[in-house]
Write a structure and sequence with these properties.
The structure is a homodimer of 455-residue chains.
Chain A: E1 9-13, H1 37-49, E2 54-57, H2 70-73, H3 84-93, E3 99-105, H4 111-124, E4 129-134, H5 139-143, H6 153-171, E5 179-182, E6 187-189, E7 199-200, E8 205-206, E9 221-224, H7 229-238, E10 241-244, H8 249-263, E11 274-283, H9 287-298, H10 303-313, H11 338-351, H12 355-362, E12 369-373, H13 375-387, E13 393-396, H14 403-418, H15 431-435
Parallel strand pairs in A: 1-2, 1-13, 2-3, 3-4, 4-9, 9-10, 10-11, 11-12, 11-13
Antiparallel strand pairs in A: 5-6, 7-8
Helix pairs in contact in A: 3-4, 4-6, 6-7, 7-8, 10-12, 13-14
The structure holds flavin mononucleotide (2 copies).
C-alpha cells in the first residue's frame, strides 16, 4: 500500500436534530432527538458504517439564548439534550471503531474531574476518546457557576493552558505497564511506575495521582476549536485536531499555514495536528435538487429565530431594534467568541448584506462552509481543499438528522472512497491510530523517580 | 395480589474486585476488574437476572490511602477504576430494568454539572438513575481540588443541603409536558412550562434553567449514606434511600426508628425512605463451607494492608507505630467519617480487640454486617431484620467479584423468592417505581408563572 494516496480525516458533528437552525422542523428530522438514545445510536452506527474517524458533540453548560423573550425561546429546538460524556459512554457500547469526541470547557470544570472522565471513557471504548477543549463563549454559563461575568478572554486561555498541563500530568500518573495484578505476591502495581503530579500553579493546585490508569491512548486525542490568536497558540502547543470555520480556499490555506507554522516553536511536527474545517453539505441528485432542498429548509426559519441566532453569534447582542432589511450596526468588542464576531462583521461589510441576509447566510452552518451539490461536486470541493493545503480533513455538519448523515454516508463517502481519498476499513481500534497521531510518551517515565513517586 | 407480603429491596454494591480488602487476590476474582467493561457488564446483567432493584458504585475523587509508603500502596488492588457516571451510562445500554446508582460528592462538585449528568443518565436509561449524596470523607480529595484541607463537617452538610436544593430546582426547570415539538407551528416548547430557578444562596448562585428536560423519574432517586446527626437529618429531609452499616438487630432497629421518626417534621411519609443496611454474605453449602471460604480469603490479607485499611477507616491515622497485637490507642476526633470512627472504637473497647483482630474484623465488610452460612441461613437473617423493623432491604456486598454475586443470585435470591419476600419479575421500568417511591411533584408547577418564567 505504499502508493496509497494521503487519506483525509472525517468527523461527524452531530447536534440533536441537525445543524440548520430550523432543522427540527424538517419533515425528516427527529424532533425530540436531543434526548432520544435510539436516535443517537442510529447516528453513531451510521457514521461508523461510513468509516468516519469520529463523531463529535459540541457542548455548553447552560441554556443558551436566555436573554430572549419567551416567544423566541419557545421556537428553539436545541435547548435540551444529553450531556455529552454520559452519551458518549453509552455509545461506546454500540460501536466498535469510531472515535467518540466531545467538548468540555476548561472555564467551568476542574481538571481532576475532566481527566478522570475522559480516561474512563477511553477505557470504556477501548481507546476511542477525544476531548474538544474550549474556553466557553457565553455569559449564560458563568451564571450557572456562581459567577456574575464570563471570565475575560486572555485569562480564560491562560487558565486553559494550565488546565491542559494538569490534565496531561494526571493522565501520566501511572506508567503504561504499572499494573501487575500479581495475585501470588500480592503486589498490584509497581510503585516505581506511579508518579504523583503534585501540581501547584497559578490557577490550579492538584496533587493527584489520578484514580484511573493511564488511558489506552496515552492521552485521549486533544481537539481545539478556538480561532483567536490565543486559541491558535494554545492549539499549536497542545492540540492534535483543530476544528475551524473557513469560507474560501485562500482563507483555509492561510489558516492552515499559520497554525502549522506555529508548531515548530513547540518542537512539534506539522503532521501531528490535523486541521478540519467544518462543512455543511446539502446533497442532491442534481445541483438543482440540492438547491431546492436548501431553499426548503431555509423557508422553515422563523424571522425571530434567525435574528436571535445572529445576535448570539455576534457576541450576544440584541438586534431586535434594527430593521431586518437594513445593515448590521457597529458592534462593541465581545468577550465571547472573538473569531466568529469578526468573521460575520467582515462578511456583512464585504458583501453588503442586510441583517436578514446575514441571518439566512448563517442559519445553516453558522459561519462554516456550505456546499450544495451532487455527491461528485461535494467530493470535488473537499478534494480541492485537501490536495491544496487547506485542510487535513473535514468536520461534516449534516443540515438535519438523521437524514443528512444518511445521505452523506450513502452518497458522498463512496465517491471519496472511489477516488482513493478515504478509507474503506478502519486501520485500527483507537482513534489516535486511525487519525495517524503518535502515542504521547509519559512525561514522568524518563526520570528516575523511585523516591519521589510516593511522597 | 392483595395478599402479597411486603417486598424487600435489594441493592448490589459492586466495587471492582469485591468488598474484601484482599478480594483481588482471590482465585475467582477478576483482578483487573476496575477498568474492565466486560467484567462490569457481566456483573450488571447478573444483578438484573437476580431482579435486584439497583446496582451501586461508591466513589471518591482521589486515590485513597495516599499517605502510606510505596510498599503498602502497591498491594492495594482498588486504586484505579472507572468513573461511575460514565460506567453507569455504558451499562444503561446492556440492561433493561435495574436501577443505576452511584455516589457523587457535594463537596467537590457543582450542582449544575451534577443535575445535568444524572438527568442525562435518567434519559439514557429510561428512568433508572439514582444519586448517592455524600459529603466526602478524605483529605486526599481536597488536595485534588485546589484546597489544602477537607471542608469542616458541619459546613460540608450545610453545603450539601443547599446543593440538593439547587439540584432539585434545576431538575424542575421544565415541567413534564413542556415539550411540544410542533413542527407545523414552529413552537418547540410551551414557555409557561419553563421555570428559571435563579437560585441565590449561601454557597451557590445558579441561574439555570437546566439544559436537560425534567428527568423521566421527576428526580433520579436520591440516596444518602452518612450516619452522623447531620447526615441523618439531611437524609430525613431529602433522601429516599439510606445506605447504612449496622451490626445487630437492636442497633438497626434504633437507627431505623430514629431516622423514620425524623421524617414527620418534614411532612414526609416514613414509607418514602427505604433503609438499606449493608450485608456482606459468605455463602456455603454448609455453614462450615461458608466459614472455610471466609478463612480462605482472610488469609490473603497482607498485615500491612490490613493495618492501612484500619488506619483509613478510623479517620486517616497512621497505626504503624503500634503493636499489632496490642490495643487500639485513643484517637483524636476526625473531620472525616465520624460515624465509622465511632463504630470501630466502640467495637474495639467493647470486645477488647487488638489492632490485628480489629483489622481482620473490618477486612471484609468495613463495618457492615457479615453473614456466613447457607442460603437458608442468610435468608433467615435478612428476613429477621426485615420483618422486625430493622431494614426495608439490604445493600448486598459480595466479598469478591464476579463469584460472590453469582452465588448470591443463584442461591440466596431463589430462597428469598420462595419465601415470597422478593420479586420474581420487575414491576416497572423505572427505579423509582420498582422501589415503590412516589414521583416528586414539580415545585414550580403549582405557581402561576406566566410572566416570571422568562426573566
Ligand atoms: C467546529 C467547532 C465547534 C465548536 N464547539 C464549541 C463548543 O462545543 N462549545 C463552545 O463553547 N464553543 C465551541 N466552539 C467555539 C470555540 O471553541 C471557541 O469557544 C470560541 O470560538 C471562542 O474562542 P476564540 O475567541 O478563540 O475563537 C466551536 C467552534 C468550532 C469551529
Ligand atoms: C453503603 C455506604 C456507601 C458509602 N459510599 C460512599 C462513597 O461512595 N463515597 C464517600 O465518600 N463516602 C461514602 N460513604 C460514607 C458516607 O456517605 C459518609 O461520607 C461518611 O460516613 C461521613 O459522613 P458522616 O460523618 O455523616 O457519617 C458510604 C457509606 C455507606 C454506609
Amino acid at each position: 500500500m505504499s502508493t496509497k494516496k494521503p487519506q483525509l480525516r472525517l468527523g461527524a458533528f452531530l447536534p440533536s436534530t441537525g445543524h440548520h437552525v430550523a432543522s427540527w422542523r424538517h419533515p425528516e428530522a427527529q424532533a425530540d432527538g436531543g434526548l432520544n438514545f435510539q436516535h443517537y445510536k442510529r447516528l453513531a452506527q451510521t457514521a461508523e458504517r461510513g468509516k468516519f474517524d469520529m463523531i463529535f458533540f459540541a457542548d455548553g453548560v447552560a441554556v443558551r439564548d436566555r436573554n430572549q423573550g419567551a416567544d423566541v425561546l419557545s421556537r428553539n429546538g436545541k435547548l435540551v439534550h444529553f450531556e455529552p460524556l454520559t452519551l458518549l459512554s453509552a455509545l461506546s457500547v454500540v460501536t466498535e471503531n469510531i472515535g467518540l469526541t466531545a467538548t468540555v470547557s476548561t472555564t467551568y470544570n476542574e481538571p481532576y474531574h475532566l481527566a478522570r472522565k475522559f480516561a474512563s471513557l477511553d477505557y470504556l471504548s477501548g481507546g476511542r476518546a477525544g476531548w474538544n477543549l474550549v474556553t466557553s463563549a457565553t455569559e449564560a454559563e458563568a451564571l450557572n457557576f456562581n459567577q456574575e461575568k464570563h471570565m475575560e478572554h486572555t485569562l480564560r486561555y491562560e487558565r486553559a493552558k494550565e488546565f491542559v498541563d494538569v490534565v496531561t500530568k494526571l493522565w501520566d500518573s501511572w506508567e503504561d505497564d504499572a499494573f501487575l495484578h500479581d495475585k501470588e505476591s500480592g503486589i498490584y502495581f509497581d510503585p516505581n511506575k506511579l508518579h504523583v503530579p503534585n501540581h501547584k500553579g497559578e490557577h490550579f493546585s492538584v496533587r493527584g495521582p489520578l484514580n484511573v490508569a493511564r488511558p489506552i491512548q496515552g492521552y485521549p486525542v486533544i481537539i481545539q476549536a478556538g480561532s483567536s490568536e490565543d486559541g491558535k497558540d494554545l492549539a499549536a502547543q497542545t492540540a492534535e485536531v483543530i476544528f475551524t470555520a473557513q469560507q474560501t480556499l485562500a482563507e483555509a490555506q492561510a489558516f492552515y499555514t499559520d497554525v502549522k507554522g506555529r508548531l515548530v516553536q513547540y518542537g512539534r511536527s506539522p503532521d501531528h495536528l490535523k486541521i478540519m474545517p467544518g462543512v455543511f453539505p446539502v446533497i442532491g441528485k442534481t445541483e438543482q435538487e440540492a438547491k431546492d432542498k436548501f431553499d426548503q429548509i431555509q423557508e422553515l426559519i422563523d424571522p425571530v429565530v434567525g435574528l436571535n441566532l445572529l445576535g448570539s453569534m455576534i457576541g450576544g447582542f440584541d438586534l431586535s431594534g434594527y430593521p431586518l432589511d437594513g445593515p448590521l450596526p457597529d458592534l462593541p468588542e465581545t468577550n465571547g467568541g472573538k473569531s466568529r464576531q469578526q468573521l460575520l462583521t467582515d462578511l456583512a461589510r464585504r458583501e453588503n448584506l442586510t441583517i436578514r441576509q446575514l441571518y439566512l447566510w448563517i442559519a445553516g452552518a453558522r459561519g462554516h462552509r456550505q456546499i450544495l451539490g451532487t455527491p461528485e461536486q461535494i467530493a470535488d470541493q473537499l478534494e480541492d481543499w485537501f490536495v491544496n493545503g487547506g485542510a487535513d480533513g473535514f468536520n461534516i455538519m449534516p443540515p438535519w438528522l438523521p437524514g443528512g448523515l444518511d445521505e452523506f454516508v450513502d452518497l458522498v463517502i463512496p465517491e471519496l472512497q472511489r477516488r482513493g481519498l478515504f478509507r474503506t476499513e478502519y486501520e485500527a481500534r483507537t482513534l489516535r491510530e486511525n487519525l495517524g497521531l503518535p502515542r504521547p510518551v509519559n512525561q514522568f517515565s524518563k526520570v528516575a523517580t523511585r523516591e519521589a513517586a510516593i511522597a
